[in-house]
Here is the input.
Amino acid sequence: MTFHPQMTSKIEGISLLDDLRFRRWNAAITDLWHVECEQEAGGTYVSRAPRLVAILDCIGDGRVEVRASSDTTTRSHRGQGCLSYIPAGMEVSSEVLGKCRLRHLDIHLDVKALEHSMGSILDRRALETPRIGFCDPRINALVRLLADDLENGMAAPQIYGEGLVTALTAALLGPSPATEPQRKRGKLAPYQLRKTVDYIEQNCGRTIRLDELAQLTGLSQSYFCSAFRESTGMPPQQWQMKARVERAKKLLKKGDTPLASVAVGVGFADQAHLTRVFRKIVGTTPGAWRKEQIA
Here is the structure.
């Protein structure tokens, strides 16, 4: 069954400046909002799924006050880096004192899918405890990467976002170990690494899900990510990009294939996407690299 947070809200004085951008991951949904808030704007919100709300930007004179409906203490948070974790079923209210423009990311968490992918039971006390107006540099860094995926219009591979969501959940809720191997930072066994690398290189032109790779090795997603990085020095999604670039090089050597065709042929969204990744890995553009090979 498809995960849906089933969120309901009542708002006043808040209007969208841009279209809502969202993306569905294996164990979460991310929503990127850009809104304008009038004087004394506000609302009430409740969802059947736990969520993290992160303020990315707050421009103007407004001050945002958020509180759980069961809490008489008002918590104030303003500006980038402010986070609020709201448990499932808990109603929260917000009030904006003064006018401002807000950009915020909401991350709706699918608890069952997260526990399955992480191979851990999430701490129920942490799941049920609200955290309003806190800051955490680790979580903020992960939130920014998820927001960038929505903002730049270039959809990152599934394994990229799923890895971020898993890391964010671990930092936010601190899952307790269940069936994980004891060596949290161990490497993949040689046969596991060979099997994984072969699979990525054979299928690099399409979306590869993190759970595919974890299943291939018989590990949970969180442990697999850690073990793959320890073994190769890079996360699996970066290895996939590297494999795409290697395929692109083979096509570029033919000399007459248009760059746009090369990009689509190896799995990139377009020529600009190919150029950006190629430059990052190789140190030059595809066009310049091809000229060097032909010369």
